[in-house]
Amino acid sequence: MKINVKNGFLLFAGTFLVAFGTYFFLAPNHIAAGGISGIAIIINTIFPSLPIGLLMIGMEIILFTIGIIVIGPVFGGKTILCSFSISAQILLLEKIWPNIKPLSSDVLVQLILGILICGIGMAIVFNLNASTGGTDIIAKIINKYTKISIGKSILVADIIVTIAASIVLGVSEGMYAILGVIMNSTIIDKFIVSLNSYKQVAIISADGKSIRDYIVNELDRSATIYYAKGAYKNDKKEVITTILERKQFLKLKDYIRSLNQKTFITVNDINEVLGEGFNSII
Length: 282
Fold this sequence. Notes:
Elements: H1 5-26, H2 35-46, H3 52-70, H4 73-96, H5 107-127, H6 135-146, H7 150-169, H8 171-195, E1 198-205, H9 208-218, E2 224-229, E3 236-244, H10 246-259, E4 263-270
Antiparallel strand pairs: 1-3, 1-4, 2-3
Helix pairs in contact: 1-4, 1-5, 2-3, 2-7, 3-4, 3-6, 5-8, 6-7, 7-8
Membrane topology: Multi-pass membrane protein
Pfam families: DUF2179 (PF10035), YitT_membrane (PF02588)
Keywords: Cell membrane, Membrane, Transmembrane, Transmembrane helix
């Protein structure tokens, strides 16, 4: 299994956010907002002597084995890395800051912050074709075979955990857990869309060749050329279309502005691009 430096850093950042949000915001308030961490919080509430991190490691072994068999070794390998990374980081946090207490008396604010931090971390991991382990593996399997979005798949997978939270931790904590699961699924879907958003750009310019060269040579992107006829002057025009990341589009816009040419640009937001140079279609 190959993981380049950038993806390795992103996976670590994603798992750290999940560990941080769980340990400092969710666990102290007994908010079992789904997932293996939620199950671990429930068990830890009943048996306080059992560390949350150790419980998570034990439960993850079975589920990541299922992930390897059903989804594949690459996904399984990354999931093993991420799940044990989260568990190890929580164990480390328990050693550094033992017996952590709620940071404030406002449970709702801590729920929102905890879910926001965890949701962003999970979205980063899912976007790299991995998962944080536990019920997220079940969600990934649901996503693979039903094409339900990963956020909604997590919502389906975590409903049982929230029901258990209502029984074990109380109705109030259970309602917080349900709210947390709904928020988590929404944040994950929205953040993944933002991570994969692109700009579809169409350009009509008298200096088309320079713009084409800039797109290909400087931005390392390709472009498609169309020819159209202007309705006002009945003249032939070259239309350059390309798909760029947001930063690339900003560079292109600055370059076009520097040309001092009359240029017409239309821009559309694209939520997903599959194919050569982008995400694999397979």
